[in-house]
Amino acid sequence: MSLSLSAKFARRELRGGLHGFRVFLACLALGVAAIAAVGTVRAGIQAGLEEAGSALLGGDAEATFTYRFASDDEREWLASIGTAVSETVDFRSMLVVDTGETTERSLTQVRAVDDLYPLIGNVTLDPPIPLSEALAGSSNLPGGVMERVLADRLGLTPGDPFRLGNQDFVFSAYLDQYPDNASGGFGLGPRSIVRTVDLANSGLIVEGTLFDTNYRVDLPPETDLDALETQAKAIFESTGMRWRDAREGAGGTATFIDRLGAFLVLVGLSGLAVGGVGVSAAVRAYLAGKTGVIATLKTLGATRRTIFLTYFLQVGALTLLGVALGLILGAGIPLALAPLIEAQLPLPSDFRIYPAPLFEAAIYGLLAALIFTLWPLARTDDIKAATLFRDAFASGSTLPRWPFLVTTLLLIAALLGAAILFSGTVFLTLWTAGGIMGALLILILASVLIRWIARRMRRPTRGRAALHLAFGAIGARGGEATSVVLSLGLGLSVLAAIGQIDGNLRAAFSDELPAVAPSYFFVDIQPDQIDGFRERLADDPQVSQVDAAPMLRGIVTRINGEEAVTATDNHWVVQGDRGVTYDDTMPEGTRLTAGEWWPEGYSGPPLISFSAEEATEMGLEIGDEMTVNILGRDITGTIANFREVTWGDAGIGFVLSVNKTALAGAPHSWISTVYAEEEAEAQILRDLASAYPNITAIRIRDAVDQVSSLVERVAAATRYGALATLLTGFLVLIGAAAAGERARTFEAAVLKTIGAPRSQIIRSFALRSLILGLSAGIVALAAGIAGAWAIQTFVMENDYAVIWTNALTVIAGGIAVSLLAGLAFAIRPLAAHPAQVLRARE
């Protein structure tokens, strides 16, 4: 009976319209929309990647070998499972252009292809000619194509010659699109495509040089991909082959999109938390205005359950409306902006309505609304019939009864569980939740402290009326301090944390680089070239340091007889191939943390030196056996020592080093880092590239620019999420200011009656907003700095320093937003006539 009666009361209450619930609906809709939009974009990109999986991979399946070609047995097996097999070779090289007396060089990512390429998909060139025609070349030179940015950098137009290693080519066309561009991962240079057979005399693809071979297979339609993957790994597990199929066509790109999307959804949850403050405030303000109605209902015999259900059903109906509006916006905005988004994406996408992200956003919205409205609704119990027509809602216990507390805790646990389930990242979800809860707690405590300080500051400012009035309003019970600090503070906290993380990442990649990083990283130096390479640099006064080491690539396949992936819980070291070096004696500057180095000239069973930090993470101990596959050959050695390896200075570092005789006879090349004055870099590159055309030089500053560009795009996406949070906080702030407009009107009327000039009143309003904005900004900055420090220190494991320019921007933003909202809702109170206002309060 109480449910049907409550439903009838709720319907009658809803007839009054949405007055008092506009901020409620706006905050809830915006929070849900942000999460739904991120999820829809992520789903659209993922769907595009899945639909174009074969084209992105360049085949239905792919077998990759590190620094070698497939053996006859491997080629035979690949041919047996498919209808066609295409071989490509991927490596970095210097593309050289002679222009008169000068020579221009630029790093490029070369894909050498056969006549079957592309096996699946199409290559688009400008001018629009077939790839086979472009690679056939002219003027007795084989042809090559390259991305426009590379051609423009070197001043090339179709018909101009260029050189790779010792081989000359003619530039035939600009490379606009090619099918497997999303599967190759991060590249340091623009793409060039030539034929593999045309590189036979280039000196670039020989044993020991750094290259990957990829064999794309066109499979019959009925092929069982799971069974084929199991078979491939079982047959070629010990050869170092890496296997992928069309389901993983985008490689790490799909994983990156998924993780970035999950992170942005978590950022969106912080916006929903800010909106929750507004939702809670709106419900509280609405119920405060219903004190007389609730007291009257209790006088007439309405039960506690009936009253609670009445307003619960009313708020529930409005919650469903707010969530529905958010879902419409979250799904509609990506669809409306689809052409613009697709034009900016280098990946295929398919934007349409996806139920999964909308369901996820709806769950988040409903749970957040329940969490933030339950306490205000529970406090209807505090209104007694005997307190009819009194301001009873502002009195009573601060906390609701224990069943509501338990329910709230269960709802928070459900929200956390949903976030973990949907994001798939327990660690990041708990960090985000802890940060949000910690920031809310800090802001609540800060608002109490601000009110306490304001009350203490009233007396010393008695002679300055405007400031005295401002402190009085801030310190008043039930004033604006709590709502302003919470709504504005949480949004600014997220923005402050992101600004600090962004600034520290930029500092790590650029500001600190010139003092610690080498100028060039040279690869593919052949063993018979290393002495001449060193001689060129030895007597150069502008070269301060040259480090060089032999390098091979290997895949850790087994540890103590167990599969490495299983033994180390899929640690990053066993994911793909890693650099391997050898040493006869312990290198200068090496610091052992455990074990001993092998004696000089050691020629016994293979011994391994392993990075100490990674060894701890993988649970390795001295004496453990490790099997490494190098060029298809298994080498099993015993771990003899652990050593410190530094990764942060862009120098040479190897996780794994073995004794020299363990790799005797294995084809390999050398790598080198060169530290030189910036003005000497160009001449060093010219001399070494002219003497050794096969070597590849990677300019560290260019590499850092590439990484910085990627970081900037991620940071920009995160900042948009933070700005959505800040916008939600601004809406809550507007709601709080609007709710306080009546009180300001009465305050202004009283002050005018006792003779206060309009300028003094507006100064008091402005000072109130300024002090609250400054306080919210300072508290948010402290919370943001603490959160950024925790993420930088414990998640990213980087050094941390406060970026004061970003910090001051946050404080200035807090003052500006608070002042804007406060003054916007001071216009009508200042314009009101005191007689009308005071008469209405009688």
From TrEMBL:
Pfam families per record: FtsX (PF02687)
Which GO cellular component does the record give, naming just one?
plasma membrane
Classification via PANTHER family: INNER MEMBRANE PROTEIN, MEMBRANE COMPONENT OF PREDICTED ABC SUPERFAMILY METABOLITE UPTAKE TRANSPORTER
Q: How does it sit in the membrane?
A: Multi-pass membrane protein
For this UniProt entry, what is the primary localization, expressed as one broad class? membrane
Q: Which residues cross the membrane?
A: 263-287, 308-341, 361-378, 399-422, 428-454, 770-791, 803-827
Tell me if DNA-binding is a UniProt keyword of this record: no
InterPro entries, per database record:
ABC3_permease_C, Membrane_comp_ABC_pdt
Q: Which UniProt keywords apply?
A: Cell membrane, Membrane, Transmembrane, Transmembrane helix
Indicate what this protein is called per its UniProt record: Putative ABC transport system permease protein
Where in or outside the cell is it found? Cell membrane
Q: ABC3 transporter permease C-terminal domain: from which residue to which, for each copy?
A: 267-379, 723-830
